[in-house]
Design a protein that fits this description.
The structure holds two protein chains of two kinds. Helices cover 21% and strands 34% of the residues of chain A. By secondary structure, chain A is α+β, with helices and mostly antiparallel strands. Chain A has a single domain, classed as RNA polymerase II/Efflux pump adaptor protein, barrel-sandwich hybrid domain (OB fold (Dihydrolipoamide Acetyltransferase, E2P)). In chain A, the strands form two sheets. Chain A has a six-stranded antiparallel beta sheet with strand order 1-2-3-9-8-5. A three-stranded antiparallel beta sheet of chain A has the order 4-6-7. In chain A, a hairpin with a 2-residue loop joins strand 2 and strand 3. By secondary structure, chain B is an alpha+beta fold. Chain B has three domains: 147 residues, Probable tRNA modification gtpase trme, domain 1 (Gyrase A, domain 2, 2-Layer Sandwich), CATH 3.30.1360.120; 84 residues, Alpha-Beta Plaits (2-Layer Sandwich); 99 residues, Elongation Factor Tu (Ef-tu), domain 3. Chain B is 19% helix and 33% strand. Chain B contains eight helices and 19 strands. In chain B, strands 10-11-12-9-3-13 form a six-stranded mixed beta sheet, with helices on both faces. In chain B, a hairpin with a 5-residue loop joins strand 5 and strand 6. In chain B, helix 2 crosses helix 7. Chain B is globular, with a radius of gyration of 20 Å. The chains are: A alpha+beta, B alpha+beta. Chains A and B meet through strand 4 and strand 6 of A and helix 2 and helix 7 of B.
Chain lengths: 128, 380
């Protein structure tokens, strides 16, 4: 199980990578492993406003449907269209090719309560 | 600490599942493997080579005595009198209102001895029902704790099993069984399954089940055998349109509504539920089970509403992304008037309605050895 240090995590198992004012969002290695084979992904369109801790989409494995929660608020400036066509990439490369959204953040303060890699790892181990 | 698992039963293969790194989940009171390598990989292994399933959680109920035949006939919808020794029949236990107590496979061992294989979630209920309705004329025994069960399914099943079995498997026809030895252990070998592929369900003593499993895995290595969890068991049966109790079948749904007429013999003199089913045929069957494939994106899931021009006409009972067909499929009940193949309907998926089309069941073509070509989905 991988927990890269350069990103932040939520307890709902999303990750966020911040570059300037742009946040890239995806789901964690632990999340994809728990889901099993991912077969379907629903994302908002460009320009949609997302709110911290509210759902922005849905990911489905063969058996289960799971909501996706935004780690931060802002405006969606890009979605990963290729991932919608090939959602199985979420299982193969959750922190890389399986990024989901790029969001222009409207409040950097919202990053503060996100978990570090170590904190998230600890959280996941307790959840097991 | 896993408090939620404290009351779960373990099959005789529990330790093996843990060694195989299975993901174990609670199912019908049992801790069962939902997947090993992954649902899609396991599913495709069964379609292409073969897979081994632990189905020891299934219930087995024996009905015996000189009136066993009459007793079984009176509580089942199919015609048990047509069964020969060594033959299996798919059948229903119904309530007087025609609703389903359970669906089961019925094994005829002799005129005086029958065995039902029933759903794990219903074993206790079924045993009580059978005891209550047949116990006065026959001996009814819950032998679920005596039998372990494994299923080997897929086109290479016969070849793999033959390596460990003293019976000539080519002589066992579809929906027939024989008693013999598997891995030198006394076993009942039945050419049945829940996947649509050729394959066998094997019953053996509980404490010998692990030996049989290990020998089959060893014999199957060079054929690409894989252990298969409940996740793939569900997607495999769904591609075949096989009903699952609790989804397509329940106490408020009749086998006729589920489209399973060929397992209901209304010409039989009597069976529990007959009057209600005859009445239903006369008055017309108001809801019907249909297969759906999605035209627009989205996966139908249990309890999603089925719509026709904004009006709810039914509900999804099962749905998934089909690993063999790579498209979203489902089953559900709709008002019979709208149940024709080709009809376009909507499925309410979260906040939108996605178009689907009623399609024939099975979704995936049945593939069986030539000897069985005349048998359709399930032999009646």
């Amino acid at each position: 199980m991988e927990f890269p240090k350069d990103i932040k995590y939520t307890k709902e198992h999303e990750w966020v990578r911040v570059e300037g004012n742009i946040a890239t969002v995806g789901i964690t290695d632990y999340a994809q492993d728990s889901l099993g084979d991912v077969v379907y992904l629903e994302l908002p369109s460009d320009g949609t406003a997302v709110t911290k801790d509210e759902t922005f989409g849905v990911v489905e494995s063969v058996k289960a449907v799971s909501d996706l929660y935004s780690p931060i608020g802002g405006t969606v400036i890009e979605i990963n269209d290729a991932l919608i066509d090939n959602p199985e990439v979420i299982n193969d490369d959750p922190y890389g090719d399986a990024w989901m959204l790029k969001v222009e953040m409207n409040n950097h303060g919202e990053l503060e309560d996100l978990l570090t890699a170590d904190e998230y790892k600890k959280y996941v181990e307790e959840e097991k | 600490m896993k408090l939620e698992n404290r009351n779960l039963q373990n099959t005789p293969l529990h330790e093996i599942h843990k060694e195989l790194n299975a993901r174990l989940v609670p199912f019908a009171g049992w801790e069962m493997p939902v997947q090993y390598a992954g649902v899609i990989e396991e599913h495709l292994a069964v379609r292409k080579t073969c897979g081994l399933f632990d189905v020891s959680h299934m219930g087995e109920i024996e009905v015996s005595g000189i009136k066993a035949m009459e007793a079984v006939q009176a509580i089942t919808t199919n015609d048990a009198y047509q069964l020969k020794d060594g033959q299996v029949q798919y059948t229903f236990l119904c309530y007087p209102n025609g609703g389903v107590v359970d669906d089961a496979t019925l094994y005829k061992l002799s005129d005086t001895r029958y065995m039902f294989c029933v759903n794990a979630s219903n074993t206790e209920k079924d045993f009580n029902w059978i005891e209550e309705n047949a116990g006065h004329v026959a001996e009814v025994k819950n032998v679920s704790n005596y039998f372990g069960q494994v299923a080997i399914q897929g086109p290479l099943s016969e070849e793999v099993l033959q390596n460990t079995c003293n019976l000539d498997l080519s002589l066992i026809r579809y929906y027939h069984f024989a008693e013999g030895k598997v891995a030198d252990i006394d076993a009942v070998v039945s050419r049945t399954g829940y996947t649509g592929e050729d394959g066998f369900e094997i019953y053996m003593p509980w404490d010998k089940t692990a030996d049989v499993w290990q020998r089959l895995m060893e014999a199957g290595i060079k054929f690409g055998i894989k252990p298969i969890g409940l996740g793939a068991r569900d997607t495999l049966r769904l591609e075949m349109g096989f009903p699952l109790y609790g989804n397509e079948l329940n106490e408020n749904t009749t086998p006729l509504e589920a489209g399973l007429h060929k397992f209901v013999k209304l010409t039989k003199q009597h069976f529990i539920g007959k009057d209600a089913l005859v009445k239903q045929v006369k008055e017309g069957i108001k809801k019907s089970l249909v297969g759906l494939e999605m035209i627009e994106s989205g996966i139908p899931r249990s309890h999603y509403k089925i719509l026709l021009k904004d009006k709810t006409i039914g509900e999804i009972t099962s749905g998934t992304m089909s690993p063999s067909l790579d498209k979203a499929i489902g089953m559900g009940y709709v008002e019979t008037a709208f149940s024709h193949i080709g009809t376009e309907l909507g499925v309410a998926i979260r906040n939108k309605t996605a178009t689907a089309r009623i399609t024939k069941i099975p979704f995936y073509p049945v593939r069986r050895p030539q000897q069985h070509h005349s048998y359709m989905i399930l032999k009646d």
